[in-house]
Specification:
alpha/beta; 5-stranded mixed beta sheet; two-stranded antiparallel sheet; 5 helices; DUF899_thioredox; DUF899 domain-containing protein
């Protein structure tokens, strides 16, 4: 199956590209198999109704008043999943994580599409003013931004250690017919002893675009 109508493609190139196409089909089917395996997870454990701190919905309206919102209060309907991205910012992470910032830049761009299917929020250990100032600098006007305050949310979900060192994580929650909140799925960048930073790559199209190029992603790392 040709991907272009260019006349100058060599026989060697066409053969290699066809082999790559077949490999890409295998990869797609394997991704779909893994996604189905993820969807088939049994119901996870119930979790506390953690309390977060949240400023005004309008980022440009300042940082007050700050109100408390519970994890359960983030669900807009019983049958909708809730996705929470754990932002590496706050406590020992005194500067916003550039990698997390790259991901959240992308989330801000597609938040209105996610909202048709799931509820979504970003949670950080940073206090509301610091979190909101960084969000203003980045133009994150479409996102729900939460400070974890004194809650153990990030620690319990594995995105913070006892010393306050932060990690990036994605978590999904569901709510049952009785209103109990359950943890469904979490993923971290670290997948194994030899895989430190690839566990949530699928959340950022930047990597996949770079992987299409001859140089690949190389050792590139985002900067603020």
């Amino acid at each position: 199956m040709r991907q272009t109508r260019l006349s100058g493609e060599s026989t060697e190139y066409l053969a290699a590209r066809e082999g790559l196409r077949l490999a890409e089909i295998d990869l797609m089917r394997h991704r779909e198999k893994v996604a189905a395996q993820r969807r088939a997870l049994p119901q996870g454990p119930p979790v506390d109704d953690y309390v977060f701190l949240e400023g005004p919905a309008d980022l440009d309206a300042g940082d007050a008043p700050v109100r408390e919102v519970s994890l359960g209060g983030l669900f807009t309907a019983q049958d909708r999943p809730l996705i929470v991205y754990h932002f590496m910012y706050g406590k020992l992470q005194t500067d916003p994580c550039p990698m997390c910032t790259l991901w959240i830049d992308g989330f801000n761009g597609i938040a209105h599409h996610i909202a048709r299917n799931a509820d979504f929020a970003v949670a950080a250990a940073a206090d509301p003013p610091a979190l909101r100032q960084h969000a203003r600098n980045r133009g994150w006007h479409r996102l729900r931004l939460l400070s974890c305050g004194d809650s153990t949310f990030k620690y319990d979900l594995g995105s913070e250690d006892k010393e306050g060192e932060q990690d990036s994580t994605i978590s999904v929650f569901t709510r049952d017919g009785d209103g109990a909140i359950h943890h469904f799925y979490s993923a971290h960048p670290r997948m194994a002893d030899d895989i430190d930073e690839r566990g949530i790559d699928l959340l950022a199209p930047v990597w996949h675009l770079l992987d299409l190029t001859p140089h690949g992603r190389g050792g590139w790392f985002p900067h603020l």
